[in-house]
Amino acid sequence: MEADEERVPDTDEASESRPTVGDILLAIEELWPESLAEDWDAVGLVAGRPDREVSTVYFAVDPSEAVLDDAVERGADLIVAHHPLMLKPVHSVAATHAKGAAVHRLIEAGCALVTVHTNGDSAVGGVSDVLADAFGLSNVEPLASAADGLPEEGIGRVGDLAEVTSLGDFAELVFGLLPAVAGGMRVAGDRHGLVRRVAVCGGAGDNLFDQVRASQADVYVTADLRHHPALEARESAVNGRPYLIDVSHFGSEWLWLTPAANALSNVLSDQGFTVDVRVSGVNSDPWDFVLTPGGN
Predict the structure, then answer these.
(1) Which residues bind a divalent metal cation (predicted)?
(2) Which of 143, 241, 263, 296 could make an S-S bridge to 211, C-beta 3.0–4.6 Å?
(3) 91 labeled part of a ligand binding site
């Protein structure tokens, strides 16, 4: 199932003042500063000329082949991708391998690529903030505060539901908010157990269990939970908590795209620029189908 493509409308269709890639980089730095990125990350401009004019910006989770094809088909001059194209070093961009082919596709189409990854996670209004808002959490604070950022910046979020609910009902809420993927969603814990304090981390978050326990969360929503960290978390749980909800990596980050696109559009509009900002409808979750015992 594909998520519906969304278009952030121009605030002034009559204006023809178009930003350059460089102008958009400055706006991105204002919203999601590179200083908030983790040391191991690779964010910023990946391909493109800073002086090139931009008419259409396209937001996506992954700079995958299908995403690049869709962006180019829709006339994108710049792609803002959450995940890096080249997180690990490469020694060639020959089109004989996937990464090189992606670089050639971008250059030949005249389309720039910018990565907003862990800086987009940590910033106010970032990936985990969007999840916390979607789940209706209040009194929200970071799970792991940014070293040099504001108190409200950092990786992950924890907050409180308006009312105590069962793990089963909360899991259904989460499932209904995220885009449909083949792998569905996994839950560890008593379906009838009560939850109110919720920790979230968009993307892979099984390196934050110490912070989750310290936050006294009843349930932790994240993606890519590996066997050993999840098992250790369950065996060290107090009264079964924190319960675990393992969601799609893609799905947990896709919700951020529309608020991020709106934020960038607003900053550029305030600066007098007109640009068409679109959100990808391509589902880049890698799985196609899943088998479960009994279908329960």
Answers:
(1) 82-83, 121, 249, 253
(2) 143
(3) no
Contact 164, 194 (CB under 8 A): yes
DSSP β-bridge partners for residue 56: 276
Per the CB < 8 A criterion, the answer to whether 161 and 198 are in contact is: yes
Q: Name the DSSP class of 124.
A: T
In a domain, 230, yes or no: yes
**Does the annotation flag 117 for ligand binding?**
no
Q: How many C-beta atoms lie closer than 10 Å to residue 289's C-beta? A: 6
SS (H, E, C) 185-207: CEEECCCCCEEEEEEEEEEECCC
Q: CA 119, CA 37: separation in Å to the nearest integer?
A: 4
Residue 253 is labelled as binding a ligand: yes
Whether 68 and 14 share a structural domain: yes
**Do residues 145 and 270 make contact, with C-beta atoms less than 8 angstroms apart?**
no
Q: Is 139 exposed, middle or buried (CB count within 10 Å of its CB: 0-12, 13-18, 19+)?
A: exposed
- Known binding residue 288? Answer is no
- Cα–Cα distance measured from residue 198 to residue 163, given in angstroms and rounded to the nearest whole number: 12
Checking if the pLDDT of 12 tops 80, the result is no
Which tokens in the block code for residue 20? 């350059």
User: Is 249 annotated as ligand-binding?
Assistant: yes
Domain range enclosing 180: 127-249
* Tokens (6 digits) for 92: 């060639």
Rounded Cα gap, residues 25 and 268, in angstroms: 11
Per-residue pLDDT of 90-106, as tens digits, reads 889 999 999 999 999 99
Do 102 and 133 lie in a common domain?
Answer: no
What is the rounded average pLDDT of the residues 232-257? 95
- In DSSP terms, 10 is beta-bridged to none
Residues 44 and 143 in one domain: no
Report the SS3 class of residue 68: helix
